[in-house]
Amino acid sequence: MLPENIELEVVTPERQVLHETVQSVELPSPDGYLGILPGHAALITELGIGHLSYLKGAETRYLTVIHGYAEVLPDRVIVLAEMSERAEEIDVTRAESARERAQSRLAKSGDSEMDWRRAATSLERSLIRLQVASRGGVPSPRRHA
Question: Rounded CA gap, 81 and 49, in Å?
Fold first, then answer.
């Protein structure tokens, strides 16, 4: 018999970000998003930069995930992320400043490849933080297809 829920745990080197029982999870991988439902086949996957969303009751909630790994089991998902934060924890002013700095660095010609990659990664991180923050700290209603 398949489990009805998933135990979701998200941790970073600094803290436990989340530990909840949920109905589904969507994770960012380097190649796109991975949807997880109860009873999913066991796997370990690398994480990219993106949002992690999960369904809790009738609400979809969001947090950022920046690199790391996830272990998926039929009834549990454990996310070990380099960085993660809930939508309501994001400092929007700081994220917008980071976006502006990254865009400015990218616009400069003559920067080394390494500097360009750092700026591109900073831009990607700030944009995902702004995207998650825009969804707000208040959970959004479940979307119906």
Answer: 10
- Work out the pLDDT band at 125, boundaries 50, 70, 90: confident
Element (H, E) at 7: strand 6-11
pLDDT at 20 over 90: yes
Residues 53-78 have pLDDT tens digits of: 999 998 999 998 999 999 999 999 99
- The answer to whether 40 and 65 have CB atoms below 8 angstroms apart is no
Strand duo 6-11 + 76-86: pairing: parallel
Phi, psi of 105 (to 5 degrees): -65, -40
pTM of the model: 0.74
Find the Cα–Cα–Cα–Cα dihedral 123, 128, 134, 136, rounded to 10°.
-140
Q: How far apart are CA 56 and CA 21, in angstroms?
A: 7
Count helices and strands in the chain by DSSP H and E runs: 2, 8
